[in-house]
Design brief:
Shape: globular
Radius of gyration: 20 Å
Length: about 450
């Protein structure tokens, strides 16, 4: 894409593309320790601190926290992905952000989630010397029931059901400005800003056939089928389009069960692709994009390591929790010669319904970031938004994946953001998370 998507977004929002340094953010920013001192982010925050800002103010903070310490008063025309080699996914920390939950909720509607993600970028710790941090967005495509609408706190509105062959989710895109900047360019602006922050970017999606539909013009949607060659082609092309925008990771829900593996524990709805079919699909995505550095991550794909490595995956979740630091370090040592694929350390996952203490989560993050003898042997790790920015006491990661409630007390988006997350204790917890990352960044 030739146009500077960040500047195009600013123009679409009625803003000047000239940026001004944010001295306050420069003053309060956390720094990496030691040789990582130039890596900076905003810790000791709650998300509303940033979500209440304008997009331009957030971009100015991002520009201010430039790792090079060079302030660009106009966002650069080209930003490449952080260079961690083709196998970066084997070592990465994956942090899933529920972009729908932090979207703008206004008059019963949900929108502009990608703009909220841009605002939150300054608070995501940058990548370390030896490995990348990768943001996974929970939603990109439309969900089947209730896309663009908030619902009651116990009324189902699941992200785990999506529509292909149409545009992107109304929850995520700012459709009020699509006459000035396309949905694809809005996503591209987010990707470029994440790359500027030193972060990789990916997306989550489901592969259970009955949880997917193919949109058709002037007729009803079709239930997806893995035995329909046209549907498979649509699926591949949808993934390729995102990769061509700069995304570089796919988080594959229910990947453990591809090819009929361990179906007794399968909780999705509908058929899954066959093993060789998924090999073909992942190879096609790499081939059609021309990218050799895509990371494919499989949910719970961590039992039979060789099975998932040969499928084309780079990492798998839910193998070890991080409660036992020595167990993580020993697993890292045992798998140090596995350079293409490794199972990962999990802090929490998308099915987490709460209940972990702050201390337990901090201990797991510590194990994930430091559980190795040599940094080059680190295991991948998996965290949720809730692990950096704790949610309010009566909700959870899984609840927000399954429902889309507003927590606003006065009908405004700001009130929702303020009440979605824990307050004073959440701020203090975020400070402690930042201290852990600060010591990890020079590894």
């Amino acid at each position: 894409m030739k146009n500077n998507a960040v500047n195009k977004l600013l123009n679409a929002l009625g803003e000047s593309t000239k940026l001004t340094k944010n001295d306050y953010s420069n003053y309060i920013a956390f720094h990496g320790v030691g040789c990582a001192y130039s890596k900076r982010w905003l810790g000791n925050i709650v998300p509303a601190d940033l979500l209440k800002l304008s997009v331009k103010e957030a971009i100015e903070i991002i520009a201010t926290l430039s790792e090079s310490c060079i302030f660009y008063d106009k966002f650069p025309d080209y930003i490449g992905t952080p260079a961690y080699g083709d196998k970066w996914g084997r070592l990465a920390n994956y942090i899933e952000i529920n972009d729908r939950a932090i979207a703008v909720m206004d008059n019963g509607c949900t929108c502009k989630g990608i703009l909220s993600c841009i605002k939150l970028l300054p608070a995501i710790p940058p990548s370390a010397k030896s490995w990348a941090n990768c943001i996974i967005l929970s939603q990109i495509w439309q969900n089947i029931y209730g896309d663009a609408y908030e619902k009651g706190p116990f009324e189902e509105n699941s992200i785990y059901a999506l529509r292909l062959n149409t545009s992107y989710s109304d929850n995520i895109i700012d459709y009020s400005i699509v006459d000035k900047i396309t949905p694809e360019e809005q996503l591209k602006a987010f990707v470029d800003l994440a790359h500027f922050r030193g972060l990789k970017v990916g997306f989550r999606h489901v592969i259970s056939a009955d949880q997917m539909k193919v949109a058709r013009s002037y007729r009803d949607d079709e239930i997806f089928s893995w035995t329909n060659p046209e549907h498979v082609e649509i699926y591949i092309n949808e993934c390729v389009k995102l990769m061509n925008l700069g995304f570089e990771c796919m988080f594959i829900d229910s990947a453990k069960h591809i090819g009929g593996y361990d179906m007794a524990n399968y909780t999705g709805v509908g058929a899954l692709p066959e093993y060789h079919q998924m090999q073909y699909i992942l190879n096609e995505i790499r081939s059609r994009t021309g990218k050799t550095n895509i990371s494919f991550v499989g949910e719970k794909s961590s039992d039979d390591f060789e099975r998932y490595r040969l499928m084309g995956l780079n990492a798998g979740t839910d193998f070890i929790t991080g409660d036992n630091f020595e167990a993580v370090r020993n697993l890292s040592e045992r798998l140090k010669y596995y350079r293409d694929y490794a199972p990962g350390v999990e802090v929490t996952n998308d099915n987490n319904e709460g209940g972990l203490s702050y201390e337990q989560k901090l201990n797991r993050i510590n194990s994930a970031l430091f559980g190795f003898n040599f940094a080059s042997d680190k295991l991948p790790s998996f965290m949720q938004m809730n692990d950096l920015f704790p949610l309010r006491y009566d909700t959870s990661t899984h609840h927000l994946m399954m429902t889309n409630p507003s927590y606003s007390t006065d009908g405004t988006a700001l009130s929702h953001w303020e009440n979605l997350f824990a307050k004073a204790d959440g701020r203090y917890y975020n400070k402690r998370v930042g201290e852990l990352f600060a010591y990890a960044l020079e590894k």
